[in-house]
Amino acid sequence: EGKVLAMYARGMSQRDIAATIEDIYGFQMSHEQISTITGCVMEEVEAWRNRPLQSFYPFAFVDCIYVSLRTEYGVQQVAVYVMLAYDVNGCKDVLGLWINETESKHAWMQISDELRARGVKDLGILSMDGVSGLEEGAKAVFPHATVQRCIVHLIRNSIRYIPRKQWSAFTKQLKLIYGAINVKQARQEFEKFKTDWQAYPGAVSVWENNFSHVEQLYNYGSAVRKIMYTTNAIESVNSSFRKVTKKGAFPNEDAVFKIFYLRIQELYKKWKGRHVANWAMVRNQLLMDDRMSQLMQQYDVAY
Fold first, then answer.
1. Using CA atoms, how far apart are residues 211 and 204, in angstroms rounded to an integer?
2. pTM across the whole model
3. Cys-Cys link to 158, which of 172, 192, 206, 223 (CB 3.0-4.6 A)?
């Protein structure tokens, strides 16, 4: 059973699993037997998706991965939303998976409500890639959370307006803004940036519309900024999922949840006993912010 689940977690089809079992172990398994084994995982999936969570997470990251799903209307692309979090001890956890056909503040309010029902009372910093409705939906349930736009995604959005031969110069100047020593320097570099790249108003407007997300980075120390300014942490989780989404459409939502859950179990084994790098420094810098200090001290007693 364990071997079957391990192969299933790698995205192997029932036909491939049956062939591998026969080749290695010398006996045959029917598709029905394999389906029964993988089907039993669904109970674990539901228990995991509804498990109690911790009261407070200093960092949470949201991203989505698109998968092909067979529906009564044919094969459609649907978004699987994933939330990764770091707890007060710097340990990683995937808080949940959700499938939504549409992005809206109401969908995110429902997800946030679910997190609260499972025990989450506060979120510190929520980093996202700009998905529609997330900030409003999350703020409706966690009004004091700091919502941070991913700087890497802003770079990708703005660079589309820049000729390829100027990408290097453009990104180098942007780094002077979000990599500045303090907010005063960041503002000065931003004014220079707007002047130097005024010939590309589309690129400049991306940063003008989101500069508040750059400014708020400087409410925290450099170690905290390094974590919160990008969603790379959760994109690495999604890259693990992509290894098992390349072989065609999923027959139903349960199939998506099962295979993603099994991949998450592999990640848990990898993360076990490991903390986020430089967590002691991160923790100290969080304690220098009044709001985060209060939250860290309020909920630290629970762990």
1. 10
2. 0.83
3. 206
